[in-house]
Design goal:
Helices cover about 70% and strands about 5% of the residues. It has about 260 residues and is mainly α. It folds into two domains: about 160 residues, no CATH class; about 80 residues, no CATH class.
């Protein structure tokens, strides 16, 4: 499998790529916070924030189709959680429907909250996709550690990104072995086989984690992740941070006024 599916475009040359990972992380965090604070009726504010993130995507030279595909992958999970809001939100009824023995009603306020949730989630996902597409994961983790993020969280993210490919490869080998030995049978038998595979994968992952941790301790691991690359905060980062921050602040002030 491809081992760079998150940051496969991080080696491109653009203004966004050259920014310090700490600058980009703080900017994305501020952008997500500003998006979540938008009132439900302020649709022009959504347009302004979409214009900001779309401009950065164009400047980054990351393929637009790639960004859209990555962002839309998460939307079904958001929709699965938010789809019930129109049925439970109180307000003016937009329509009533009979479902077996129950009668459910959809309210206008619930539909408004649903659309706001989807738009906010999509804008936030766009910013995260832009961050991971223009920054190497190792540099981003180093920036998080220098921003005094919890060391345990940074190490968990580091190991997750390092060994998720190993686990996926293990699953693919187990699946290939199962298909090569499959001689038919009922669906119940196949479900039992899949359950055994999940249990085996858990045991192998636990044992691999123990071996990796023991090997790290033998090599002097003390909880710090060390890299040869050093992060440099330049004048371009300061200009971008000030400009992007002023854009968010002015938009928020206009929004609440």
């Amino acid at each position: 499998m491809k081992h760079s599916f998150l940051d496969q475009y991080s080696d491109r040359k653009s203004f966004v790529h050259k920014l310090d990972p700490r600058t980009k992380f703080v900017a994305v965090l501020a952008f997500i916070l500003a998006v979540t604070l938008i009132p439900p009726t302020r649709w022009p504010t959504y347009a302004v924030y979409f214009f900001l993130i779309a401009t950065l995507i164009l400047l980054s030279r990351v393929p637009i189709l790639y960004v859209l595909k990555r962002s839309l992958v998460i939307m079904p999970f958001v929709l699965l959680i938010a789809i019930f809001i129109p049925f439970f939100k109180e307000g003016e009824v937009a329509g009533s429907y009979n479902m077996w023995l129950w009668q459910v009603s959809v309210t206008y306020s619930g539909l408004q909250v649903l659309w706001n949730t989807l738009v906010k989630a999509w804008l936030s996902i766009l910013s995260l996709v832009l961050l991971t597409s223009t920054t190497r994961i190792t540099s981003l983790l180093e920036g998080l550690e220098q921003l005094r993020m919890p060391r345990v969280m940074v190490m968990i993210l580091s190991f997750m990104y390092r060994y998720i490919f190993v686990l996926v490869d293990e699953v693919m080998r187990m699946r290939q072995a199962m298909e090569s030995r499959n001689c038919g049978g009922s669906s119940l038998r196949q479900l039992r086989t899949i359950g055994n595979m999940i249990g085996t994968l858990f045991i192998r992952s636990y044992e691999r984690g123990e071996r990796v941790y023991t090997a790290m301790l033998a090599r002097g691991f003390d909880g710090h992740s060390r890299t040869l690359n050093r992060l440099n905060f330049r004048s371009a980062d300061a200009c971008f941070g000030i400009g992007f921050g002023l854009a968010i602040i002015l938009t928020s002030v206009f929004n609440f006024l």
